[in-house]
Structures are given as structure tokens and as C-alpha cells.
């Protein structure tokens, strides 16, 4: 369950799916859909509208994987159940990078940070 505060009223979204990441700047959220990757939604007046799917290689184990916004909301990063971390362009859905990590095992947790070189 995820709660979005809209002034005095709260909007509750309930998903029987995986991890949800919220981008307040764009009023969007991305969720692991447990089927074929991640789904991006636009939240408008308490209604979630599907914008696009970020497909990963076929899901073999329906276990929740973490997904996060990165690059100030311009990209989406998420794990997989087959050893890779995916980075997608939020607007186009294009895969920007696929990083091998766990040699065919689950990557359920990801973290993103912002840093710059001096």
C-alpha cells in the first residue's frame, strides 16, 4: 500500500505487486509488475494511468524487485530475477544500460545516488 497526500485528502493506492517508487516532481510512480518488468503510472486526481512498460527478460520468479527513479527522474533503474540491473529512459522506455550483477540470480534490491566529480 502506498499513500499520496493531496492537501487535506489522502489518496490510497493498493497494489498486489512489488516495490513502488514515487517521483513527486512529475507526480508519477513506477512499480515492479511481477510479470514482465516495470510499469510507469501518472497520478492525476487520485487516478493512476499507465504510461508505459519497461520490459525485462522474461520473469521466471514472481518475486518483488526494487525499482527507483534516478537522474532526477529522467531514468528508471530496477533489478531482475536473472542477474541483471536495468536502466531505462523514463520518457522513451529505451534501455540505456543492462548491468550483469548476480550471475543468473535475483537482484531484488537496488539503490541509486547522486554524485559528481570535483
Please explain how this structure is put together.
With 118 residues, the chain is an all-beta fold. It has a single domain, classed as Thrombin, subunit H (Beta Barrel), CATH 2.40.10. It has strands spanning 2-6, 9-13, 20-23, 28-32, 37-44, 47-55, 67-70, 75-78, 84-89, 95-100. The strands form three sheets. Strands 3-4-5-6 form a four-stranded antiparallel sheet, with no helix packed on it. A four-stranded antiparallel sheet has the order 7-8-9-10, with no helix packed on it. The model is unreliable at 1-14 (pLDDT under 50).
How many beta-strand runs?
10
In sequence order, what are the helices and strands, one letter per element? EEEEEEEEEE
What is Rg?
14 Å
Helix content: under 10%
Quote the CATH topology. Thrombin, subunit H
Distance between the termini: 40 Å
Query: Largest beta sheet: what is the strand line-up?
Result: 3-4-5-6
**CATH structural class:** Mainly Beta
Average per-residue pLDDT, rounded, comes to: 80
Low-pLDDT ranges: 1-14
Q: What kind of assembly state do the chains in view correspond to?
A: single chain
Shape assignment: globular
The fraction of residues in strands falls at over 45%
The main pleated sheet reads as: 4 strands, antiparallel
How many structural units, i.e. domains?
Answer: 1
Number of helices: 0
Q: What is the SS-derived class? A: mainly beta
Amino acid at each position: 500500500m502506498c499513500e499520496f497526500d493531496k492537501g487535506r485528502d489522502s489518496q490510497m493506492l493498493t497494489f498486489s505487486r512489488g516495490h513502488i517508487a514515487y517521483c513527486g516532481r512529475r507526480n508519477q510512480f513506477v512499480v515492479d509488475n511481477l510479470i514482465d518488468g516495470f510499469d510507469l503510472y501518472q497520478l492525476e486526481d487520485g487516478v493512476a494511468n499507465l504510461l508505459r512498460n519497461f520490459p525485462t527478460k522474461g520473469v521466471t520468479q514472481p518475486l518483488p524487485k526494487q525499482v527507483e527513479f534516478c537522474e532526477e527522474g529522467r531514468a528508471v533503474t530496477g533489478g531482475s530475477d536473472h542477474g541483471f540491473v536495468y536502466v531505462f529512459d523514463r520518457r522513451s522506455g529505451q534501455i540505456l544500460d543492462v548491468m550483469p550483477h548476480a550471475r543468473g540470480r535475483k537482484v531484488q534490491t537496488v539503490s541509486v545516488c547522486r554524485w559528481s566529480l570535483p
